[in-house]
Design a protein that fits this description.
alpha/beta
Length: 207
Amino acid sequence: RLERGLTATAQDVEACAPDTIILATGAETPWDGPALDDGLPLPSLRALVQDALRRAGPMGDGLLLIDRDDSIWVYRAAELLADRFATVTVLSEWEVPAQREPLVVRQGMLERLAARRVRVENNARVDLAPDDLMQGAVGFHHLLTGARLRVEGIDAVAHASPRRPRTALLTALRERGHAPQVIGDAYQPRALMQAVAEGRRAGQAIR
C-alpha cells in the first residue's frame, strides 16, 4: 500500500495497524537567515524553491545563496534556480562544497554547476552591508585571506540554514506508546548514501 500526497498523523499510522513503524520523515530548515537593515530576515532557500516551482519564467538577474547547511540539497537547488536567474552565486564558509557527500557525488555536482555557470565561493562569510545592498551587491570576508570582497549584480538573496530532524510525528507516536525506528535525516541530517544504507538495514531486519 502506497499513500502519496498525505501528511501522515499518528492516527493515520495507527489506522494501518503496523507491527513495525519506520520513520523517514526527513529534516527541515527552521531558522531564519541573517536580518537585513530593516530587521526582516532573509528569505529561506526552501521558500524560494517553492516559489520557483509554482510559477514559470525568469525570476531575476542575479541570485545569491548563503549556504549554512553544506548539503547536497543546497547545490541541487542552485542547479534548479540557475534556469530562472541569469546568474547564481553560492557563498559557503566551508572549504569544500557539500563535503559530507561521497567524492563521486560531489564530482557530478560540480560538473553540473559548472555547466550552468553557477559560481561557488568557498571560505566565504557573508557581510550584509546596507550600502552594498543598495548597489545590488553583497559583501563577504574570505576566511583565509581576510579580504573583503563583493558579489555584484544581485537582485535576490536567499539563506539555507542548518537542517534539523522533523520530530512532530515521532513525538506523537511516542506519546501513544509506540517506539518507531528512525532513519535517515529524521535521525540526523547527513548524506543520502547514509539514509539509503539505514533504510536497507531497517528493511532487512523485518523480513
